[in-house]
Amino acid sequence: PFDIVISRNNKSIYSADEGTVGSSSVRRQKFTHFVNPNLQISSLRGNLDTRISKLFNGSYDFIIVAEAGIERLKLNVKYERLNPVDLTPAANQGIIAVVARKDNKEIKKVLENFNSEDSRIESIAEREVGNILGAGCNSPLGVFFRHIDNKLEGIATIYTNKSKFTATIVAEDDPKKAGDELARRLKEISKEEGNFL
């Protein structure tokens, strides 16, 4: 689920004096402005191979992408994994979903054989936070849950132009309730700081 930074010159995104970061994600752009205002941001689109090629061709000094893509394509690239407290992943980042017709019982049976119950619970909780906050894929919101020992550990972060708000919870394993609780906690923290989500 994590976000990673790939650097052309093995520099840190946190301490670089200058450079251009490639990303079209509002969440990743706001994170970059927050942790290092010295960096410029430039839109970056295309599949993962294209993005990496643009980095090493000199169009960017850094790119931020999902670790899942690197792992699944087995790409041999050096990168830095970002702590989810710094850059909380997008809801459901890294989760593979299969969509099938509801009335096809045969397919349903096949899918049940390789379903990850933990991933299913985590995905529901993460989506619930976004639903409650009215956030879409263009919102600077990150949500990350882990289902461990019948508990849901969650973190949610939202960025504004000048601020970063992060909330964490440990809740029972009802994903809708956990998502609701985390969203409400993030709203409370934002309100305490004089912003209103």
Short description:
35% of the residues lie in helices and 22% in strands. It is an alpha/beta fold and 197 residues long.
Name a few traits of the molecule.
197 residues; alpha/beta; 8 strands; globular
Strand order of the largest sheet: 3-2-4-1-5
Largest sheet: 5 strands, mixed
What spatial form do the alpha-carbon principal axes imply? globular
What's the total count of β strands? 8
Radius of gyration, whole Å: 18 Å
Please report which band the strand proportion falls in: under 5%, 5-15%, 15-25%, 25-35%, 35-45% or over 45%.
15-25%
Alpha-carbon distance between the two ends = 25 Å
Q: Topology as H/E string?
A: EEHEHEHEHHEEEH
Description:
- The structure is a single chain.
- By secondary structure, the chain is an alpha/beta fold.
- The chain is 35% helix and 22% strand.
- It is built from six helices and eight strands.
- A five-stranded mixed beta sheet has the order 3-2-4-1-5, with helices on both faces. A three-stranded antiparallel beta sheet has the order 6-7-8.
- α5 runs parallel beside α6.
- The radius of gyration is 18 Å and the shape is globular.
- It starts with a strand and ends in a 5-residue tail after the last helix.
